[in-house]
Write a structure and sequence with these properties.
heterotrimer; A mainly alpha; B mainly alpha; C mainly alpha; A: globular; C: mainly alpha; 18 helices
Chain lengths: 429, 468, 551
């Protein structure tokens, strides 16, 4: 029982629901600067190569490293976009009330699958232009060089070949674009009309949408990331990538809400209760990520079969072993302890800080998944790391700029959602 | 807005922005008390007595079979080289899985503030405990010398001078299942204390009052007590939620840390958990639908509750289906000969009938729940849920038996054949389960009255402020 | 009300019918400054803690402490039990396998935290507490049904009964009542004690029985509630079985079969006898030997009868008591192969103990003279009654059939160390540990093992083939080792024994120049160590004597 009476809703045109001008002004600089920084990072990364290699080999390693850095950035951004899409779908599926005030942010982010589709063109391009530039299975000599049995490889390349891979990637993007546009357009239309039927419609379709989403992300994870080590396999890999993705989406929501509130939007709508909930979910998904990655590791470690251990083997020696330990301590233990307390979760600034921190750690996680599969197996030294950071910061900025642009044309809160009142009034026990 | 629903007892339709009521009719707090307490206070109905006698007879039969097993040895089962994990382990995993829905409803749905859980959580939690009791029986008697099962505990033995082997998943299982049983019991009992106090305060008989008085620990309903109680309840829920994940995860480790083809696959932990929830919800529905009818609780366990549970069954069933597909895909994609064989053998080998029973019951039958009509028709729900339970039993059968019967040594391959003892024990375990459940219905509050009243209070509150 | 006035007043209580009226009353009472107040409700009412000014609970801290204890307990327990107190390797995992310890650590964390939450909550609430003054009011029974109560305790600083009754009366209530001491008897009914006594008494009985069993002795066999596989139908070695006609539980090889890997065509290698030479002098014996090692061998003229007669004479000879033991051993070998018995015990005969035993491993069991210590007589092959010795009648191989390289010698050394050195000593002087022990305890039946360093055992008098045969079939008290040591390894031992013999008689000149220095140095070092040891020993003895003197 609440002591509060039901809150008064502001009108749909209230400035609290608009993107603040200070943020809107950042659109263009973010887009242009982001694009530039991203390309700079990519270019820097492509120059990485060992001195003791011949020029041709160095060029190959460089191209491979550059593409891997680019793929890392793209997968990182993609996981967050997909996490946001899943967030929206699941809120509709369970008819959630609390989340209405922050749902629009996720909706804006999920539309970024369209620019992401364009940003994926170089990755597909590397298959058609090069020869094993990014994905080693694309190299005709790969199997012979590594002594894989002929019979195994002929079966393998039925799945891993450039035509079919391209078709699948296009298919994934088609499905996600369809889902994102459907839910975004309907939600925006409700801003105008306030029809309750739209909510019903979105709820109705959220069930099949979640299923499509689950099937496509599982296979996208297999294709984009797992096939970097063509002979390696783990049935759980899709769930592993998804665990990081959903965590990233919640962190982004916390950060974005905080920034929007600081700059003047939705000050009365998003309350400490919503941060509390986001904090709880972040805590929960940190745990979930740990659970999934630990289970995957434990099973492979315990089974100790060469077919499977190769992936973890390169990741637990040398520098990568250090990164693995860093993930244990800083992706699990530190945020786990840090977000455990109710007092932390009820301080918006702290929730935002943990969200930002975890967004960085999520990048380390993605980096750990992708970069050790570079042929050299190295992080490319200091230049390589700087290039990777530039590339991802650039891509994220570019997308942020696009999100801001989209937000400016629309509202930052689903202003006429029938459950908005419930969301604003909602209180944790 | 009034609480009266135009179409009678159907609250499965919800207008966006307004929450459909979870307690139906012009129900008052006192009505809830009456409705729940009469179940335990009135004389047992004939159907209850018959049900109890049948269950109790089956329980005795289970006991006789266990004595026979202990006296004769595990050879009375069909377990034979190379399938040494036959039905006992199948039944164990099946029952542990059944238990998971109870904890999910009471803990995870609580954490997600799903208020519709309130009228079903008590019975579901009870089901968890009884299912864990059934589950615990099987590995206990499967160890061969059941009277030495206590060797599993890490106690300083003066005879053995050694310790259990903590690097074995089977020992993790001992810890997981016993922790699960203990925490579920605490959670269940703690949730019941305020309701036992209601029983105490309503009882007219001195002995009954004394018994419930002892059980309710002197509960007075003080606000200070309630505050700490709710905190403790939330904390227990927060522990029970990851616990329930861990239990079936660890059960899946029993299989997945080995190198047996078809067992060693990383998807097992989440896939087992989803399967457990799936089967558990099916069992909850199988029990609750007849129970709500017989005990007259239709206003409290409404169509909306059934509808929601059907949706969860649909979701988890589809996850399980996706996991089946992923396993098959990776078996092919991985191009490891043994794995490929294991999966081809599952679907097209000598146990093809078990595999396709499993797929039909687990993946195809819940897809019927896409139709709202089927989600809201009780007898169809029960039918589908029974199919799901059969399918989930077969899932464990497929995992255990098909993989073991075709192990690395082709000369040892054989076809597993259960004996009458196997069948008796499976049926007998249902006897144990239903005996405990029926006793629970008679002696304990089957619905969480306090929480349901809190839901009703919220409903009143919303009604007052409902006209935005 | 009037009759209750004398009783202790604990406070005043008022009844409400809805949450809203209760909440309003709570706020009013709080605003009036009352602090020792409490509300009683049938379900948790949110916001009432604010309305009453109740402070948050410390329960989460208790739970955190319990949880950390759980993690620490689990980790300490697993590391102690599996890595320190009882370490052993399993499936190639380290003793401290952190990933494998995680599940139990997690479970115990949850278990302890849950105990913390459950028991902590009851403890903080002061429950169980079965007697409570508010329970005296019969209307209070509906607090667990549909009524709400507000209570102001008399311990409150502001408590004035009239004021309190007034302020509560002003709220939306129609029932205000004082709460008085619960005067009902606090005596536990007698039947409870009786029951308790009975149960306690009965439960002691099994304990006493167990206790008595543990401290007393009994000549009865113990109870077998559970058989625990104590009565296995499996037979042990040498046991009787009714299952077979010969009554033996141990089964010989089926006639005409050879166990996998035991087929050996090279009889020279197997026996240490030059077969072609033997065929020339004693064809039947040669054939018997061949058949022993190759049951599939078909000879042109089956020599069974002849062989039997010879076996008879030979066995009879051994019965004389002083027959050459080696001959006996050899005969046993051949007898074993002789009849190809499907039922070897078909004609059991005390006179032919060796014929009844297909195994040649224990020929000396029937040898009475073996009991006599013969340490003084190192050579065992000498005939004592003028009959030609088996030594002379057998053309022993005088060259080791193995290629003598470092590997062979190393192998010989290894096997010598395992099988021979326990009696013969590492250097072959017949002073192995078993012998030392036997001497120490003055074992009556002990036969001093031969020193291998004596003329009669050198290669010129005791050919390699003979040495091999002795190892294989035994001599005097020494059992044959053909069952334990593979043929090739036995030959390797022969080679090593020869090397040992050489080592005791070699001069430094026989060694490569390059190695001499090292060996001399080693020798010097060893001598030094021995000297030091001797000195230390002497000092010790001296000290002991001194101590004795002092005492």
């Amino acid at each position: 029982m609440s002591e509060h009476s039901a809150p008064a809703l502001k009108s749909a045109d209230d400035p609290a629901f608009m993107l603040p001008a200070s943020l809107a002004a950042l659109r263009l600089p973010l887009c242009v600067g982001g694009l530039f920084v991203m390309l700079l990072g990519w270019w820097l990364a492509s120059g990485v190569g060992s001195d003791d290699l011949s020029e041709v080999e160095a060029a190959h390693i460089g191209a491979n490293f550059g593409m891997s850095v680019y793929l890392t950035a793209a997968v990182y951004c993609m996981t967050i976009v997909l996490g946001s899409l899943f967030f929206v779908l699941i809120q509709h599926l369970v008819r959630a009330g609390w989340s209405i005030v922050v749902r629009r942010i996720a909706e804006l982010v999920m539309v970024m699958v369209i620019p992401m589709g364009i940003l994926f063109i170089p990755i597909i391009g590397s298959l058609w232009m090069g020869d094993g530039t990014l994905y080693r299975w694309d190299n005709a000599q790969y199997a012979a060089e590594h002594g894989f049995p002929e019979a195994v490889w002929t079966e393998k390349i039925r799945w891993l070949n450039q035509e079919w891979f391209t078709a699948r990637t296009v298919g994934y993007f088609a499905v996600w674009t369809m889902l994102a546009l459907f839910f975004f357009k309907n939600s925006v239309r409700q801003d105008q009309t306030g029809e309750k039927a739209i909510t019903d419609k979105m709820q109705y379709w959220s069930g099949p949408a979640v299923m499509l989403f689950a099937a496509t992300t599982t296979f996208a994870a297999f294709d984009w990331v797992m096939s970097l080590a063509p002979m390696w396999f783990s049935t759980m890999f899709g769930v592993y990538l998804f665990a990081g993705s959903i965590l990233g989406a919640h962190c982004l929501l916390a950060v974005a809400s905080y920034v929007l509130q600081k700059t003047g939007a939705m000050r009365d709508e998003v309350t400490v209760e919503h941060y509390h909930d986001l904090g709880k979910l972040i805590f929960g998904f940190v745990f979930f990520w740990t659970y999934i990655s630990f289970s995957q590791y434990l099973l492979i470690w315990y089974g100790n079969i060469p077919e499977e251990t190769e992936w973890f083997y390169v990741r637990q020696v040398g520098t990568w072993g250090g990164v693995a330990l860093a993930l244990i301590f800083f992706h699990w233990m530190l945020p786990f302890v840090g977000t455990m307390s109710r007092h932390v979760r009820r301080k918006p600034g702290l929730v935002c800080a943990w969200g930002a921190y975890l967004l960085v750690m999520h990048y380390v996680d993605v980096y750990f998944m992708i970069m050790p599969s570079v042929e050299e197996g190295s992080a490319g030294g200091l230049v390589g790391v700087i290039a990777s950071i530039l590339c991802v910061v650039g891509m994220a900025s570019l997308l942020t700029g696009l999100v801001l642009g989209l937000a400016q044309q629309n509202k930052v809160v689903a202003v006429r959602d029938p459950r908005l009142g419930e969301s604003i009034a909602f209180e944790n026990i | 807005m009034s609480l009266a629903i135009p179409n009678g007892l159907d609250n499965s339709v919800e207008q966006p922005g307004e929450r459909a009521p979870l307690v139906l009719g012009d129900t008052t707090y006192h009505d809830i008390t009456e409705a729940v307490c009469q179940v335990a206070e009135r004389k047992p109905s004939t159907s209850w007595v018959i049900g109890f006698l049948v269950s109790f007879a089956l329980l005795q039969w289970l006991g006789i079979c266990i004595l026979y097993l202990i006296y004769t040895g595990v050879g009375v089962w069909g377990n034979q080289s190379p399938v040494f994990w036959g039905w006992p382990i199948v039944n164990f995993v099946f029952w542990v899985g059944i238990g998971h829905a109870g904890t999910l409803i009471s803990a995870i749905l609580f954490l997600f503030r799903q208020e519709w859980r309130t009228s079903i959580n008590r019975a579901a939690e009870a089901m968890t405990i009884f299912a864990v009791a059934c589950a615990g029986t099987f590995p206990g008697i499967h160890v061969g010398r059941a009277w030495l099962a206590f060797w599993l505990a890490p106690y300083p033995s003066l005879n053995l001078w050694m310790w259990p082997q903590f690097r074995s998943p089977l020992l993790w299982d001992v810890f997981a299942v016993s922790t699960y049983g203990t925490v579920s019991l605490l959670f269940w009992y703690m949730g019941m204390v305020p309701d036992l106090a209601t029983f105490r305060d309503r009882s007219t008989n001195k002995w009954r009052r004394m018994a419930y008085g002892l059980l309710s620990l002197g509960w007075s309903g003080s606000s200070r007590h309630w505050m700490r109680y709710e905190k403790a309840y939330a904390l227990l829920a927060a522990f029970a939620a990851p616990l329930v994940l861990s239990v079936h995860t660890i059960v899946s480790f029993d299989f997945a840390v080995s190198q047996v083809p078809g067992w060693h696959t990383t998807i097992f932990p989440p896939y087992f958990v989803a399967g457990a929830i799936f089967s558990g919800f099916a069992m909850v529905l199988t029990l609750m639908i007849p129970a709500r009818k017989m005990l007259g609780l239709e206003k409290l366990i409404t169509i909306r509750h059934l509808d929601n549970m059907c949706k969860i069954i649909l979701a988890t069933g589809s996850i399980v289906g996706l996991a089946y597909g992923t396993e098959f895909f990776i078996a092919w994609y991985g191009q490891v000969q043994e794995e490929k064989f294991a999966f081809t053998n599952r679907a097209f080998g000598p146990y093809w009938w078990a595999y396709w029973t499993m797929v039909t019951c687990n993946v195809i039958s819940p897809q019927l729940f896409w139709f709202k009509k089927l989600r809201t028709t009780p007898w169809i729900i029960v039918l589908i849920c029974i199919f799901v339970n059969i399918g989930m039993w077969f899932e464990r059968f497929v995992i255990v038996v098909t993989s073991l019967s075709r192990d690395y040594l082709p000369s040892a391959w054989s076809y597993f054949t259960p004996t009458w003892v196997d069948f008796s024990m499976l049926i007998g375990s249902f006897g144990l389960f239903f005996t405990l459940f029926l006793l629970f219905c008679r002696l304990m509050p089957v619905i969480n009255m306090a929480e349901t009243k809190a839901t009703l209070a919220k409903q009143y509150h919303m009604t007052e402020h409902g006209d935005q | 009300m009037s009759e209750k006035k004398e009783k202790t007043v604990h406070g005043v209580i008022a009844e409400y019918t809805s949450v809203d009226t209760l909440m309003a009353a709570c706020r009013r009472v709080r605003d009036a400054g009352y602090e020792k107040t409490d509300a009683f409700t049938p379900f948790p009412v949110h916001g009432i803690d604010k309305a009453l000014g109740i402070k948050p609970t410390i329960l989460p801290w208790i739970v955190l402490g319990a949880g950390l204890t759980g993690t620490a307990t689990a980790m300490a327990m697993q590391i102690w039990m599996n890595a320190i107190d009882y370490p052993y390797i399993i499936s190639g995992k380290p003793f401290i396998s952190l990933p494998a310890f995680m599940p139990v650590a997690f479970e115990l964390t949850v278990l302890f935290s849950s105990f913390g939450a459950f028991f902590g909550m009851w403890a903080l609430n002061g429950l169980p507490k079965f007697s409570n003054p508010v329970f005296t009011d019969p209307r209070f029974d509906r607090v667990t049904d549909d009524r709400f109560f507000l209570y102001i305790d008399s311990k409150d600083e502001q408590f004035q009964r009239a004021d309190v009754e007034k302020i509560l009366g002003d709220t939306e209530t129609d029932y205000v009542q004082t709460v008085v001491e619960d005067e009902s008897s606090d005596k536990v009914p007698k039947p409870f004690f009786m029951m308790w006594g009975l149960v306690a008494g009965l439960s002691i009985i099994p304990l006493l029985v167990v206790l008595k069993m543990r401290v007393s002795h009994s000549s009865q066999p113990r109870f077998h509630v559970f058989y625990d596989m104590d009565f296995s139908p499996a037979k042990e070695a040498q046991q009787y079985s009714t299952l077979f006609r010969d009554g033996r539980a141990m089964r010989p090889d089926v006639a005409g079969t050879v166990a996998r890997g035991e087929m050996q065509a090279d009889v020279d290698f197997m026996t240490g006898i030059d077969m072609s030479a033997l065929t020339a002098i004693d064809q039947p014996r040669a054939e018997r030997l061949v058949r022993r090692f190759n049951p599939l061998y078909q000879s042109d003229a089956p020599p069974a009868q002849e062989a039997k007669s010879e076996a008879g004479t030979q066995a009879g000879k051994s019965d004389d008591g002083d027959g050459p033991q080696d001959a006996k051993v050899d005969v046993a070998d051949e007898d074993a192969s002789e009849n190809k018995p499907v039922q070897p015990a078909a004609e059991p005969s005390a006179a032919e103990p060796s014929a009844a035993e297909p195994s040649a491993a224990e020929p000396s069991a029937a040898e009475p003279s073996a009991a006599e210590p013969s340490a003084a007589e190192p050579s065992d092959g000498e005939p004592s009654d003028g009959e030609p010795s088996i030594m002379d009648t057998t053309p022993w191989l005088d060259k080791n059939p193995l290629v003598l390289d470092e590997k062979t010698l190393a192998n010989g050394r290894k096997n010598f160390g395992i099988y021979c050195s326990v009696c013969h000593g590492m250097s072959g002087y017949g002073n192995g540990l078993v012998n030392e022990r036997a001497r120490k305890i003055v074992a009556q039946t002990w036969v001093q093992p031969s020193s291998l360093h004596q003329d009669t055992l050198y290669a010129d008098k005791y050919p390699d083939g003979k040495l091999f045969s002795t190892i294989s079939n035994g001599v005097r008290k020494m059992a044959g080792y053909s069952g334990q040591i593979k043929t090739r390894d036995r030959w390797a031992i022969v080679a090593y024994v020869r090397a040992l013999q050489l080592s005791q008689n070699a001069s430094i000149d026989q060694i490569d120049e390059a190695q001499r220095e090292g060996i001399l140095k080693e020798q010097a070092d060893a001598k030094k160590v021995l000297k030091e040891k001797a000195a230390a020993e002497a000092a010790k003895t001296k000290a002991a004597e001194a101590a004795k003197d002092a005492a």
